[in-house]
Specification:
With 661 residues, this protein is an all-alpha fold. It has helices at residues 4-44, 57-79, 84-90, 103-119, 153-158, 161-176, 179-210, 224-269, 272-289, 300-303, 317-320, 326-334, 365-369, 377-383, 398-412, 416-421, 425-436, 442-454, 460-471, 478-490, 494-508, 516-529, 548-555, 563-574, 595-605, 613-626, 633-645, 653-660, and strands at residues 94-95, 125-129, 137-140, 148-152. Among the domains are: 4-82 and 182-260, no CATH class; 416-513, no CATH class; 545-608 and 612-660, no CATH class.
Length: 661
Amino acid sequence: MNNFFEQQDHARRESRKLLMLFALAVTAIVVVVNVTLAVAWQYAMRGHGPVRYPQGFFIAITIGVLLFIGLGTLYQIFQLRDGGDAVAEMAGGRLVPPDSTDLHERRLLNVVEEMALASGIACPNVYILDEEDGINAFAAGFQQNQAVVAVTRGTLERLNRDELQGVVGHEFSHILNGDMRMNIQLIGVLFGIQMLALFGRELFEWGARIGGGSRSKDDKGPSIGLIMLVVGIVLFVVGYVGIFFGRLIQSAISRQREFLADASAVQFTRNPQGIGGALQKIGGLSVETGCGSAIQSSKAEQLSHMFLGAARPSFLSGMFATHPPLEERLRRVYGKDVQFVQADVLDDDEFGNEGSSQSSLSSQFSSFSGGSASQQAFTAVQSGLHGDEGFGHHAGHPAQAADNSQLLKSGLAMPDDARALAREPQSAALLVCAMVCDQSQAAQAQQQQQQILRAGLADATALQAALRAAAGISAGQRLPLLDLAMPALKRLPENTRQQLLSVVAALIQADGRVSETEFVLQAILEQRLNPQAARAVKVRYADLVPLRKEVALVLSLVPQGDAATRQQMFMQGAASLRNLQLQATDWINPDQLDYQAVRAALAQLNQLAPLAKPMLIRGMLQMAQAQNSLSSARTHELLRSVCAAIDMPVPDLPAMLQDMS
C-alpha cells in the first residue's frame, strides 16, 4: 500500500471481509441454537409419545435469533448515528472549546489544527477524557471531514509536544486510512451479538423464578420454567461464544491497522521519537503504576479497538489483544529494541506560550515540521505511507517538500485576528459572513451588512471587526480558515447554523450572480453544517464511468480563458480519463453553469470508492498543468473545495503530477 487512497480502499475491503466473517459467525450461532433447542425439546417432551416439533419451530428460532442480533446492531449504530461526537461522548469525553486558554488544551488544539491544515481536511472536534489517567487517544467518525479526536487527561499531562504530535498523527492516520467507519460497524455488530447473550441471561432468571413445576393444564406439555431455563442457558452460552469469535476477528484486524497507524505517524511528523516516545511512556507508566494506556470507562471494552493503546488487559493476550505488544510496535518504529521510559507529569513551564488563544499557528510551524522532524512533515501528510521503505524513511524530494511547505506556510500564516475569531462560535459565524461580503462596492457592502445585522448574528461593532479581519485574508487562506473555524461553527445551536446558511445564501444572491469563490464557500458550509453531515455516505460507484456527466460538469470549472481555450484545456484533462471517452461537446461553458447542478454532481461523486476519487483530481490537475495555472490561488482553492466535497484529503500535487508523467 503506498498511499492513503489505497489504504482507504483496503480498509473498505477489510470491512466487507470482516462483515462476511461476522455473517459466518452469526450463521453458526443460528445453527447451534436450532440444534440445541431441538435436543432440549426432545428432552422436555420425553414420555409424551413420538416427538413432533411445532409447525415453524426452526423458522421461528432462526428469525428470533437474527432479529435479536439485527435489532441490537441497528440500535447501537443508530445510537452512534451522529458519528464521532456520539462515540466520544459515549466514552465520557468533554468537548474542548476551540478558543480554550488552558495550557494543556491550547497545545492539543494547536497540534490538531496544524495537522488538519497540513492534511487538507476540516479541523476535527477535540475531546478530552478527563477521568482517564492513562496515556491513550482515539479518532472516530463516519467521514474524514466530520471526525473527532479524543485524548485522555494522562496524554495531555505526560507527553511533550513531539510525542503529542506523534499521537495525533497516529489518529489522523485512522481518519485518512478509512478505519473509523469500520470501527463503528464493529461496535454495532458486537453489541448485537451481546444482546442475544443478555436476553439469554434474563430468560434464565425468569425461568428460575417461575420454577420447574409449572406445566400446561393437561399436564402433558413440557415444563414452562424448564424450557425457559434451557433456552436462557443456550442463548447466554452461544451469545458469549459468538462474542468470543467476534472479538477474535476484531482483534486480528485491529492489530494490523495499529502497525499501519504507527508507521503513518512517523511519516506525518518525520520524527520516530514522536509516536515512539509516546509508546515508551505508555510502557513506563504501565511498569510504574500499572496504568499504562488503561481506560476506566465502562465502555472501554466496546471501544477497545479504536484506542491508541490497549484499553483493557486481555486474558489471552495473543489472540484477543486489540493492539500488538508495545515491544513489537517500538521495534518497528525505531528498527531496534528500546527501553520504556518514565512518564512523569510535565511542569506548566514546559508548554511555552501555547496557553494563549492568540498563539500563532505559524509560530508553531518549525515545531511541527522543522528540527528533527524536518520540513518534509507536511509533504508526508500529503504523500501517504510507503510501507516498503521503513518507518523512518523520508519520502519525497526537496523540491516537492519546498512546494508543499510554502503552500502550507501560507495557510498557517493567516492573520491573528482572523484566527482568533475562527475559534469562537458566534465570531466564527460572523467571520464567514464577512468573507462572503463584497467590500469593493460601497452600496452593495452596506446592503449586505444590513442583512447580517437584521439577522441578529452580531452588533455593528462586532461586524466591523469581522470585516476588518476578512479584508486581511488572502485568497489562499480562505478555505484553510474555514477548515479551522469548523469546530467552532459546529458548536452553534442547530437553528443558528441553519440561520447562518440562510444568511450566507442571501449575501451571495445580493448581486444577482454567484462567483466561484462564493459557490465554494457555500457548498462546503452546507456540506459540513447540515443536520445529516456526520452520517455515513454509502459507496455506490466503483469507478467514474457511471458518473460521466458529473465528471464533465466538475472538470468544466477548471479551465480559464476564452471559450476555445477552455474547451481545448478540457480535452487535455479528458485525455487522462480515457475510460470516460469525453468529447469536446461534453464541455460546459462556465458562464452557463448551474451551480446547483455542480453541487448535485459533487454529492454523487462523493459516493465513489476511495481509489476512484483521485482520478477526478488527476483530470483537474492535467488541465491546470496544461494551462500553467498549477500554482495559482484559484487552482488550489478549487482543488481544495472539490476534495472537501468528495471527502478526501488534498493530494500531494508534485507526486501526483510525477505519476501522470
